[in-house]
Specification:
By secondary structure, this protein is of the alpha/beta class. It has helices at about 15-20, 35-40, 50-60, 60-65, 70-75, 80-90, 95-110, 130-150, 150-165, 175-190, 200-210, 225-235, 250-255, 275, 280-295, 295-310, and strands at about 170, 195, 215-220, 240-245, 260. It contains 16 helices and 5 strands. The chain has a 5-stranded parallel beta sheet, sandwiched between helices. Strand 3 (about 215-220), helix 12 (about 225-235) and strand 4 form a beta-alpha-beta unit.
Length: about 325
């Protein structure tokens, strides 16, 4: 019997064709490690019924870890055959292995102090204490997931490229632009010639002047922001080394870049994925900044001292001796 849900497969097929022939993301290739992180990473690649199963697992992981295959199928509006295909697409031999993986992860979350109901909607009547706990739990989880997902060899490559670059262009739109400006400020303080561009015309002009050895960093949570992709492509066409900071390893931005730095997110009410990506993005860029500073230690230390001294006269005098 063919399942009425449209997911590109019949119920007799054991692996969804959308993910069957694609290699798993290296950072999360172990199906038993970071199950929920892997589900979030692969979610955009699932369609139809498979996507509904993935969304149900992410909405209530604790319940999914206790549910039978029939119960999970009913909650997601699919069939046991689709749940089985979902398990295979995730790299598990069967449903029991998926349940054990989710149970182990939710157990680690409880022991680490993360709330089990991270996916719970924040209600208008919720006290600020609960809202704070929910946000802290979500951000903590996102930080840990980002650390697990991040390829440090890629960070190393990016740091080496930036440390040697005559010019670094940073591209981003909207909230990603704010993150890019923070990175530009940090690099500028240690003597790295960096510019953050938010205007497409100005950004394209700068990208067109790129040369071999320059670096272009594109920031986009979805990896699908057209302007950022265009700017990175322009810089790449002139020989710049390109770096993508995104949450989706198979996004157009990631596929374009020479180096890909991945982040994880944990959305909460009023903070969808694009907004909840900010803290993980800043953590990765902080790591990259420190890695650059390490590799240019003498130059960076001298530049930081000079810039700190230059602005010191504008800081308040703590002892009040120079106060009018």
């Amino acid at each position: 019997m063919v399942e009425p849900d449209v997911d590109g497969t019949a119920s007799t097929v054991v692996a969804d064709p959308l993910v069957r022939d694609q290699a798993p993301t290296p950072a999360v290739s172990n199906a038993s490690d970071g199950v929920l992180l892997r589900v979030r990473t692969l979610l955009p690649e699932f369609t139809g019924a498979l996507q509904r199963v993935a969304e149900q697992v992410l909405t209530d992981p604790a319940a999914a870890s206790r549910a039978t295959i029939v119960e999970l199928a009913e909650r997601s509006g699919t069939s046991p055959a689709t749940v089985t295909r979902f398990c295979r697409a995730m790299g598990f031999d069967g449903y029991s292995d998926l349940r054990l993986g989710i149970a182990a992860e939710t157990g680690r979350a409880r022991s680490a102090g993360w709330t089990v109901d991270i996916g719970r909607e924040i209600q208008p009547s919720d006290p600020l204490e609960r809202v704070l706990a929910q946000i802290m739990a979500a951000d903590t989880r996102a930080m840990h997931d980002t650390a697990a997902l991040l390829d440090l060899a890629e960070v190393e490559r990016a740091a080496v490229a930036i440390a040697a670059a005559p010019r670094v262009n940073i591209f981003g739109a909207s909230g990603s632009a704010l993150v890019g400006e923070e990175m530009q400020f940090s690099l500028h303080r240690i003597g790295v010639a960096a510019w953050a561009w938010t205007d497409v015309h100005n950004g394209l002009a700068s990208a067109a002047l790129s040369r071999a050895g320059d670096v272009a960093l594109g920031i986009s949570h979805s990896g699908e922001t057209g302007e950022t992709i265009e700017l990175l492509a322009e810089a790449s066409s002139h020989g710049a080394t390109t770096i993508a900071l995104t949450s989706f390893p198979r996004s157009p931005l990631a596929e374009l870049a020479d180096i890909v730095l991945l982040t994880a997110t944990q959305a909460t009410t009023f903070r969808p994925d694009a907004l909840s990506a900010r803290h993980p993005q800043l953590v990765v860029l902080d790591l990259l900044y420190v890695a650059v500073a390490q590799r240019t230690h003498e130059r960076s230390h001298a530049a930081f001292q000079r810039t700190a001294q230059a602005v010191s006269g504008h800081k308040a005098v703590k002892d009040g001796s120079s106060a009018p």
